[in-house]
Amino acid sequence: MHARSTTVMGRPGMIETGIAHVQDVVMPKVRAMDGCIGLSMVADRTSGRCIVTTAWRDEDAMRATASMVEPLRTQAAELLGGEATVAEWEIAYLHRDHRAADGCCARITWTESDPASIDRVMDSFRMGIMPRVEQLEGFCSASMFVDRASGRACVTATYDSTEAMMTTRNAAMGLRADLAADTGTRITEVGEFTLAIAHLDVPEMV
């Protein structure tokens, strides 16, 4: 399975309008496309940064819908007041302790590593990091997306509340350090967001 993520650095004052537009206009159209298996949206209401992710049955389905998704992306970016950047990923891992509910939050970590070591990074995350992540207070779900050609990865952990996400910050920092030490991965960015739309209906992948 594959995913396409669209990031928009929008205007904070347009976040609620943007969320409603993605929920009411974009999502029904994308979900009707052949091979789509879900959509999610995270938002930072302070900075205006939003990330919309669509999941696809396979790479062919993702690529076949690119031209249909593009005008929807452009319209949403204009409404949010920013430009869109796009990344495409292989979905390497997804585990849910339970379904996300209103008020959930997400911590996203972006990494870079030698493309030749991406399988090692994935194994280290699955076997060394995830058993500890699952023990964190308020843990809801986690996913790992990878781009094998570049060695980039995107790890998302969701929590039941802002309070739970804040409580786990130090523990999460330690887990990132352990992953970096074990695999040579470079942590390039960490962001914290509200989970605005949670309909990424990807089957369990562990």
List the helices and strands and how they pair.
Elements: E1 2-9, H1 15-31, E2 36-43, E3 49-56, H2 59-64, H3 66-80, E4 84-96, E5 105-112, H4 118-133, E6 139-147, E7 152-159, H5 162-167, H6 169-183, E8 186-200
Helix pairs in contact: 1-3, 4-6
Structure commentary:
The protein is an alpha+beta fold. The chain is 36% helix and 37% strand. It has 6 helices and 8 strands, in the order E-H-E-E-H-H-E-E-H-E-E-H-H-E. Strands 1-3-2-8-5-7-6-4 form an 8-stranded antiparallel barrel. A hairpin with a 5-residue loop joins strand 2 and strand 3. Helix 1 packs antiparallel against helix 3 and helix 4 packs antiparallel against helix 6. The radius of gyration is 16 Å and the shape is globular. The model has no long low-confidence stretch (mean pLDDT 95).
In short:
This protein has helices at 15-31, 59-64, 66-80, 118-133, 162-167, 169-183, and strands at 2-9, 36-43, 49-56, 84-96, 105-112, 139-147, 152-159, 186-200. With 206 residues, it is α+β, with helices and mostly antiparallel strands.
| Shape annotation | globular
Spatially, the strands of the biggest sheet line up as: 1-3-2-8-5-7-6-4
Mind describing the biggest β-sheet?
8 strands, antiparallel, barrel
Which segments are poorly predicted (pLDDT under 50) over 5 or more consecutive residues? none
Question: What is the structural class?
Answer: alpha+beta
Secondary structure: helix percent:
25-40%
**What is the number of beta strands?**
8
Distance between the termini: 13 Å
Give Rg in angstroms.
16 Å
**Count of individual helical segments:** 6
Beta-strand fraction estimate: 35-45%
Order of helices and strands: EHEEHHEEHEEHHE
Q: Mean pLDDT, as a whole number?
A: 95
